[in-house]
Amino acid sequence: MKWHQLTRGEKAFRIINTCLLSLVTVAMLYPFWYVVVCSFSSLSHIQNSTFILWPDGIHLESYRQVFRNDMVPTAYKNTIFITLVGTAISMLLTILGSFCLSRRKLPGHTAMTAFVVFTMLFNGGLIPTYLLVRQLKMLNTLWSVIIPTAINTYNMIIMRNFFSSIPAELEEAATIDGASQFQYLLRILLPLSGASLATITLFYAVDYWNAYFYSLIYITKRQMLPMQAILRQVLMTTEIETLMYDAAVQTLPSEMLKDAMIVVTALPIICLYPFIQRFFVKGVMVGSLKG
């Protein structure tokens, strides 16, 4: 409805609603923007300013000092490995599992579905999981972060519902043409599931990129820790010197170095959102409402 067609009450509501949502948006975005600005600002600009909205240029000293230690690039490589390999394994298992659950004529379909849903409500707990990981010889390896969380039941249910929403006539036509179940999955289901696949892939990628809890439990070697675990240690212990070869080389305040680490850790996954965001509504809503 156009603006001139609205009543006074509707116009007042839209104005107030827009102002309130704008304030909420600013309150949510400014803390992260402040971190980014501080990481690129000079020391004098931060010390002499009470309210910082823009950096006084592009200063990369804090980033140089963060990457001066080999531990940060190594942790970055670990995070990239966990994200790429973990997402690939999770998507493979999720697609195969959801395809099986979507086959209503499969023997034991109801029992398997109930078993999968049961895992959403109950799990074995942390101690049994740790004992299992230890028995599998995965302690102090990156696989300990990937394998225990390889399948997210919620994501598999969404994908299963999307597969179930595909008209059965397509499968019948493929079967008549001589396609096997595997060919039907690869040539028909997956090309039609682009939105859901992109959405679930991003869900897994974000989970693996931000994962730090299991790495703190299963990994004790610092050279095997991902970036998020190191960032957590720095923020929790407030000992930024642990990132430096020598505390004497630290020429910037610890808060500036923390800001740089936060940006380095969060920026890659944030840059990924604009390319996949358009799939969110279609991918999640179709998979969660149809069954």
Describe it:
The chain is mostly helical and about 290 residues long. It has two domains: about 5-60, no CATH class; about 65-290, MetI-like (MetI-like fold). It has 15 helices and no strands. Helix 8 (about 155-165) packs antiparallel against helix 11. The longest helix is centred in the first third of the chain and has 33 residues, at about 10-40. The relative contact order is 0.13. Mean pLDDT is about 80; it is low at about 245-250 and about 285-290.
List the secondary-structure elements in sequence, H or E: HHHHHHHHHHHHHHH
Would you identify the CATH H-level superfamily of the largest domain?
MetI-like
The span between the termini is: 34 Å
Q: Using DSSP, what is the number of strands?
A: 0
Summary?
This protein is mostly helical.
Main traits of this protein?
single chain, 291 residues, mainly alpha, MetI-like fold, 2 domains, disordered C terminus
Walk me through the topology.
Elements: H1 8-40, H2 43-48, H3 61-66, H4 71-102, H5 109-121, H6 126-135, H7 143-146, H8 153-165, H9 168-176, H10 181-192, H11 194-210, H12 213-218, H13 227-237, H14 254-276, H15 280-289
Helix pairs in contact: 1-14, 4-8, 4-11, 8-11, 8-15, 11-14, 11-15, 13-14
